[in-house]
Specification:
Strands 5-4-3-6-15 form a 5-stranded mixed beta sheet. The chain has a 5-stranded parallel beta sheet with strand order 10-11-12-13-14, sandwiched between helices. The two termini are about 30 Å apart. The longest helix is centred in the C-terminal third of the chain and has 24 residues. The protein is α/β, with parallel strands linked by helices. Helix 8 links the parallel strand 12 and strand 13. About 45% of the residues are buried. About 40% of the residues lie in helices and about 20% in strands. The protein has 2 domains: about 90 residues, Urease, subunit C, domain 1 (Roll), CATH 2.30.40; about 290 residues, TIM Barrel (Alpha-Beta Barrel).
Length: about 400
């Protein structure tokens, strides 16, 4: 079995049973607990976690402890929105590369290992038409590949001929969906992703691609998933698209650019989550290039600032927030962009300890991963990471 040593950006092979002394640990409930702490595990799961008692008998018994005394133990991070089949560099060239599955699989393997090296122990993938992410999930579960747990939608549901053609086959209407939904779900889906709107404009503030479904149509799609016990994530931006997604009863809003205070009230009332994906906008400003005009950069900055303010409002209201990067989008690199996303959440004036809680505990809830996002007796070591104390900053 493996544990992520994010302190050194590597993955450690460890026995299924053993013990170690660590400098301390961090949990969402307790915050940071300083050590030295001795942890024991059996069958790959934490069996005890407590202070190291400095007695001769204890020291003798602990001679086999792994020397992890430089590290803080904490729950691994979870990225709640990625696209494994995209490369963050050139969208259209990447789609052409899909014609060479071996090349894509190699890139995905590298990305998955990098995620785990950085302490990201689970990711939620937003889909791709060929099913590369779903195949990666299966390779991980069969232990052919090494990487984080993958929650995959397999294929997204979008309106035929509208935005999202690389995410799914597209459906002409709800009648088309009704005829094909059994086959759709048989191919596999951990969650259902519904594309509610197009993407935002970088040149016209407030402009978003058209809404693809009525509230009634969306409710039909949502009910199809909920009847099977499957959560629904909705790609939605703009006032109308977000309003329809909320009214239809989705479980999370992805992106949510141009969210309003009224939207936030509805999210709070219905306990829906919002994954605001700051990196696709913020990273274009953080890592500038000649790709966008000065006017577009000005618009992007305006979008980012309004998004940050709304996220702070959501946090202050107690709206459920998740941390997802949209990795695979241009300049949003797999793994590394998670640190960017946490930094952007900090720019929204969310406290660092709270950001860690979102990146672990709340993301585990959004992804429906009950063993993740926590550190307690019974937690698998594969759900944890080892970090350097000074890097936590809390």
């Amino acid at each position: 079995m493996f544990i992520s040593c994010s302190a050194e950006k590597r993955i450690l092979a460890i026995p299924n049973q053993g013990s170690a002394v660590v400098a301390g640990y961090w949990t969402p409930e307790l915050g940071r607990v300083d050590g030295p702490i001795r942890m024991q595990w059996e069958q790959g799961k934490v069996s005890s976690l407590g202070p190291l008692i400095a007695s001769m008998e204890c020291l003798k018994a602990s001679s086999q402890d792994l020397p992890w005394h430089s590290y803080i133990l904490m729950p691994g991070f979870i990225d709640a929105h990625v696209h494994l089949a995209l490369d963050s560099i050139d969208f259209f060239q990447c789609l052409r590369n899909w014609q060479d599955p071996a090349q894509i699989e190699m890139s995905i393997q590298d990305a998955l290992r990098h995620y785990l090296e950085l302490g990201i122990v689970a990711i939620r993938d937003g889909g791709d038409l060929p099913g590369f992410a779903w195949a990666a999930k299966q390779s991980l579960e069969s232990q052919e590949w090494i990487g984080p747990k993958v929650i995959s939608v397999r294929e997204a549901v979008n309106r035929q001929g509208m935005y999202g053609r690389f995410l799914g086959r597209g459906f002409q209407n709800v009648q088309d969906w009704q005829q094909l939904k059994e086959e759709f779900f048989r191919q596999g889906a951990d969650q259902l992703k519904v594309v509610v709107t197009g993407i935002i404009s970088f040149s016209e503030y407030g402009q978003v691609g058209p809404v693809q479904w009525s509230v009634g149509e969306l409710r039909n799609l949502v009910n199809s998933a909920h009847e099977r016990g499957i959560l629904v994530m909705a790609h939605a931006s703009g006032e109308e698209g977000i309003s329809r997604a909320i009214a239809a009863g989705v479980d999370s809003i992805e992106h949510g650019y141009y969210m309003t205070s009224e939207h936030l009230n509805h999210l709070k009332e219905r306990e829906m989550a919002w994954v605001p994906t700051l990196a696709p906008i913020g990273n274009l400003l953080k890592y500038p290039s000649d790709r966008y005009s000065p006017h577009e950069m000005h618009t992007l900055n305006r979008i980012l600032n309004s998004h940050l303010k709304r996220i702070k409002e959501a946090y202050d209201m107690g709206v459920r927030l998740g941390i997802g990067t949209d990795a695979g989008a241009y300049a949003v690199h797999h793994g590394d962009s998670f640190l960017d996303e946490m930094s952007w959440m900090g720019d929204a004036e969310i406290p660092k300890n709270a950001i860690y809680c979102l990146a672990t505990q709340e993301n585990a809830r959004i992804c429906r991963l009950p063993e993740y996002g926590k550190l307690e007796v019974g937690t698998p070591l594969s759900c944890l990471q080892m970090q350097i104390p000074k890097r936590l900053g809390i």
